[in-house]
Design brief:
The structure is a single chain. With about 70 residues, the protein is mainly alpha-helical. The protein has one domain (about 1-70). About 85% of the residues lie in helices and about 0% in strands. Helix 1 crosses helix 3. The longest helix is centred in the N-terminal third of the chain and has 24 residues, at about 1-25.
């Protein structure tokens, strides 16, 4: 499952960079590359959002790992 964690984390970082660009420059990289709310960009937004929700599970896994090491 480590590859899935790394893939999800990479996609969430890409999404965060996109939001940074939107916030600072009003430039949506995904919309620029794939079209404004095209079917592909909507799928990409949904996948990034699902990865973000999945990564919430890291909180539980990080705390359980630190408890095991103590």
């Amino acid at each position: 499952m480590k590859w899935f964690d790394n893939t999800a984390l990479t996609l969430v970082i890409v999404g965060a960079v996109n939001w940074l660009l939107v916030g600072i420059f009003r430039f949506d990289l995904v919309a620029f590359l794939f079209g404004n709310l095209s079917w592909f960009s909507r799928i990409l937004y949904a996948i990034v959002g699902l990865c973000g929700l999945y990564l919430i599970s890291l909180y539980g896994r990080i705390s359980s790992t630190s408890e095991m090491q103590s």
